[in-house]
Amino acid sequence: MVNNRNFSRVSFAIDALVTQAEITIKGEVRNISLQGLYIEPDGKLDAGLPVDVSIQLSGTTPEVAIKATGSVVRVDENGIGIKFSKIDVDSFAHLRNVVSYQCGDGDKVIGEFFKYLDGQSK
Question: Reduced to 3 DSSP states, what percent helix, strand and coil does the chain have, rounded to the nearest 5?
């Protein structure tokens, strides 16, 4: 199997809400990257359709949330893979901090992001 991932994927156990059309499900994030996440949900969503994702980070004052728009790119017996397509600047900064902390190498994570941006501009 070929790994087409551009970003480091890290384990991260936290609850998230995912909304697709009029359906909102709750699930536990299993891993996350700057490009998306894999979640074990308490319900089902359809592949190929857009979703809104909200992850409330615990232990922060004031409360901090990562909010993104994306699409379901994979559905299997254990969970759902979501690829982000849009994320606001504040949410991206929080996501970058989470991934950098979990990865243990902030320079690597930001380097992957700049490499990705460079490839998008060509």
Answer: 25, 45, 30
Both tokens of 37, joined, read 């996440």
Between 12 and 104, name the one with better pLDDT.
Answer: 12
Q: What whole-number distance in Å separates Cα of residue 74 and Cα of residue 35?
A: 14
| 107 three-class SS | helix
Reduced to 3 states (helix: H, G, I; strand: E, B; else coil), residue 37 is strand
Q: Among residues 50, 109, 111, which one has the least CA distance to residue 83?
A: 50
Question: For residue 120, what pLDDT is reported?
Answer: 54
Higher pLDDT, 116 or 37: 37
Q: Is 16 exposed, middle or buried (0-12, 13-18, 19+ CB in 10 A)?
A: buried
Helices first, then strands: H and E counts in the chain: 2, 6
Whether pTM > 0.85 for this model: the answer is no
Hey, what are 50's tokens? 């857009």
d(Cα 122, Cα 78) in Å, to the nearest integer?
37
User: CA nearest 63: which of 33, 26, 23, 94?
Assistant: 94
